[in-house]
From TrEMBL, chains A, B:
The keyword Transcription applies. The keyword Transport does not apply. Keywords: DNA-binding, Transcription, Transcription regulation. This is LacI family transcriptional regulator. Residues 2-56 form the HTH lacI-type domain. The lineage of its organism: Bacteria, Bacillati, Actinomycetota, Actinomycetes, Pseudonocardiales. It comes from Saccharothrix yanglingensis.
Length: 332, 332
DNA sequence: GTGAAAGCGCTAACAC
DNA sequence: GTGTTAGCGCTTTCAC
């Protein structure tokens, strides 16, 4: 593996000159430049990024910390972050926390301050203020939970409004016993979506009934199915359900079908995230569609600016969303 | 950020001693050990992995190169590789090639020899022998395509047998016009699955009809839907379809439903990959289930052994699979 | 057992 | 414009 020194020796110049050429420094004598370029070609030189970064004090890596890659929303997001990061010459280290507090803590601690230039974190259990302590000195951009009061960069949609929009759509269908699946004691986004749900019901003059709010400790298909089964066996089952993500909604639809309850005829179902899976389901899923590409771009961009200038005041970027109406709330 | 030198100064010993303690070297005078440990604690020392690796000549990173993370199979696989790698103290760099030849070439070239200790590659367009040239000197483990004749480490299931098993199941249902979706001019796995399809038909004494073999240039839901639509509008539509992955199958089921063709009554559908999405679909999907955890473990393990000993002969690991029979081929 | 010092490959003062 | 050289933080001979 050729080093700068090798190239310099071959070209008959100093390492400095080679370094200048490699790094695109403008003022190099044309003759030297071409000799160096030839030597570069001949040796197949590739810079050792590790050494370069050691010297520059940066790593060239960015960490993307998500609960689980099997959750389609995070898989899609990860793909988009990968693309956005590549444009800024960042490599992405993806870490899974499995949604536990320990997972999130350990992950950030293990990455430490040397491994990465910064992190984009989609926290599930941890709260924003924890990050200051866990990752002292490492730039972090938070995804999801909107905590305007904390001094940390943040990207996300307006979860309250998004949920409110979705539930208003169910109200508009004439449904009156509208349930929610996904309440969670510690998740900020869950609290916000629940708030939006409550507001939409209040807007319509409908009561908020505790028996129609189903908790889900995880947000997988199985949890949605279980919650739906519980709701449907209650004395007064719902005629519509707003699920806090598409996975829960998929499980809910499945549970309904297994009991012979028709979607949307007997119960309309709306989800959240607009994963591609939902668009192809039977029925296809009505869902809140966050602009995931915008989230990814904003997050990478924000992190980049923070790395450049650690002193700048924290910023809260609100990305757009829309409601995708499909079969699961279509017709009567 | 404390360095080894800082710790040494605080403990009143040399960097060597600190290094010995940090790296768990056994023979350190107990007194010094405890002083160092205190200093370590007091400074909150964290080794600079970049520097360590520069010195050791390794990077601590492994690249996982996949076509796209939005494909659930790869998302699931990536999650499992992440876990397996963590046990060997490897960080994982995930790269998306988007399934193009350029993407695969550029990715490996960009990673270069310094960034990573090795790569686990799931090639779509590239063939195994390309990797030798692209990534000279960097250890590579191939996933998927089984090319026993090439001198490269490889992990995968027996695609021919797996496809044959799935199609035999459709034959066992009494179906006679069995189609295949997913033929592809350049993909090794596609060729192998097509071969298994042919063998199963031959086993049953059924003819292989070209009009029942649908090509799919991509393996997304949309492609499955399009192929199914084509098959169903033919003069003699199929009564069963074997799709080369679950995404194609999901699209195929959707396309059938849109035309009022019932699954499995009118047409039975089987997929490949056993993604969780298929288990919750309506109908749930019969599918070939590769042992993904075994694939991930074997790949990381194989790569580890190759890094330790670059001279060892290439190995081909065959991981198990099973057939998950569900609603999409259930009943008559 | 421990210390001094070289050196991994690179960048960036600083000198010329 | 280009060469010399120190040093990023670490591991590791080689002395002692």
């Amino acid at each position: 593996m050729a080093t700068l020194k090798d190239v310099a020796a071959l070209a008959g110049v100093s390492v400095k000159t080679v370094s200048n050429v490699v790094n695109g420094y403008a003022f190099v004598k044309p003759e030297n430049r071409s000799r160096v370029e030839q030597a570069l070609e001949a040796t197949g030189y590739r810079p050792n990024l590790g050494a370069r970064n050691l010297r520059r004090g940066r790593t060239g890596f960015l960490a993307l910390v998500v609960p689980e890659l099997v959750v389609p929303y995070f898989a899609e997001l990860a793909g988009l972050v990968l693309r956005a990061a590549r444009e800024l010459e960042w490599n992405v280290l993806i870490e899974q926390t499995l949604g536990t507090r320990e997972g999130e803590r350990d992950t950030l601690a293990a990455l430490g301050p040397h491994m990465i230039d910064g992190a984009i974190v989609s926290p599930e259990a941890l709260e924003a203020r924890d990050f200051g302590e866990l990752a002292p000195g490492i730039p972090v951009v938070m995804l999801g939970e909107h905590s305007v009061d904390l001094p940390i960069d943040h990207v996300g949609i307006d979860n309250v409004e998004a949920a409110r929009t979705a539930v208003a759509h169910l109200v508009g269908l004439g449904r009156t016993r509208i349930a929610a699946i996904g309440a969670h004691p510690h998740r900020g986004t869950a609290a916000q979506r629940l708030e939006g749900y409550r507001l939409a019901l209040a807007d319509a003059g409908l009561p908020v009934r505790d028996d129609l709010v189903a908790t889900a400790l995880n947000y997988h298909r199985r949890d949605g199915a279980e919650a739906m089964a519980r709701l449907l066996s209650a004395p007064e089952p719902p005629d519509a359900v707003f699920c806090f993500n598409d996975l829960l909604a998929t499980g809910a639809v499945r549970a309904a079908a297994e009991r012979g309850v028709r979607v949307p005829h007997d119960v309309a179902v709306a989800g959240f995230d607009n994963t591609e899976e939902g668009a192809y389901g039977l029925p296809s899923l009505t869902t809140v569609a966050p602009d995931k590409a915008a989230v990814a771009r904003a997050a990478v961009d924000l992190l980049h600016r923070r790395v450049e200038d650690p002193q700048r005041p924290p910023e809260h970027v609100r990305t757009p969303f829309s409601l995708q109406v499909r079969e699961s709330t279509g017709g009567a």
